[in-house]
């Protein structure tokens, strides 16, 4: 059966990536190797039900609870498992903390690996060739495009996700949000701030 699939594609593989994916999907469906209903359920869960809110809750908790933050960074998988936030595409997560000296940026140069249980499905730009290639070669230019302005003394660290390791950026807490409750802070944490392509923002300015 596998040979048949390969033969079909060797005959004429569409050059456009979207057409390729569609062709591959139709073939896999025809062979009974994937089920559209199951795929729809997975997409619906991570697109509409999970979203970046789980990640935002963790960040807000880390900002307000030093012990939790230390455990989150030191023992990430254990903490996430206890919170029920492991599972598909989040089996092994590493939390990287932004500091005065370091800004972290996450990419998947190979495809689009991303911590689904924490951030939902990746945005389209995260999957784009441009982001994937430029984030490593010219991280400061990419950050500039996202309007993330950093002082030249700040070091940028780029983390390349794989199917084994996903990264979550723990952004710095904005000074103006200090003293707010954990629940209020959740609304300050943006999806992009947890990828490294943005900063947390006051919900009033969103
Ligand atoms: Fe990937």
Reading the helices and strands in chain order gives HHHHHHEEHHHHEEH
End-to-end CA span: 51 Å
The 3D shape can be described as globular
Helix tally equals 11
Mind telling me the CATH superfamily name?
Nitrile hydratase alpha /Thiocyanate hydrolase gamma
- The computed structural class is mainly alpha
Identify every distinct bound molecule in the structure, by name, code or SMILES. fe (iii) ion
The CATH class name reads: Alpha Beta
Taken together, the total number of domains comes to 1
Provide the low-confidence segments as ranges: none
CATH domain fold name:
Nitrile Hydratase, Chain A
Strand content: 5-15%
Q: Mind telling me which CATH architecture this is?
A: Alpha-Beta Complex
Q: What helical percentage do the residues reach?
A: 40-55%
The whole-angstrom Rg is 19 Å
């Amino acid at each position: 059966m596998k040979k048949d699939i390969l033969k079909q594609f060797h005959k004429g593989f569409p050059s456009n990536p979207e057409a390729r994916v569609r062709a591959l999907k139709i073939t896999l469906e025809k062979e009974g190797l994937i089920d559209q209903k199951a795929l729809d359920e997975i997409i619906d869960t991570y697109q509409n039900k999970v979203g970046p809110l789980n990640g935002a809750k963790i960040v807000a908790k880390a900002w307000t609870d030093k012990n939790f933050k230390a455990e989150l960074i030191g023992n990430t998988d254990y903490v996430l498992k206890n919170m029920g936030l492991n599972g598909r595409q989040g089996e092994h997560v590493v939390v990287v903390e932004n500091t005065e000296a370091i800004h972290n940026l996450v990419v998947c140069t190979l495809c689009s690996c991303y911590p689904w249980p924490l951030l939902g499905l990746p945005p389209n730009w995260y999957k784009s060739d441009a982001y994937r290639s430029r984030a490593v070669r010219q991280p400061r230019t990419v950050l500039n495009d996202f309007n993330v302005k950093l002082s030249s003394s700040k070091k940028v660290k780029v983390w390349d996700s794989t199917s084994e390791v996903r990264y979550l950026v723990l952004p710095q807490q904005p000074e103006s949000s200090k003293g707010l409750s954990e629940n209020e802070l959740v609304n300050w944490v943006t999806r992009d701030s947890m990828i490294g392509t943005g900063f947390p923002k006051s919900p009033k300015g969103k």
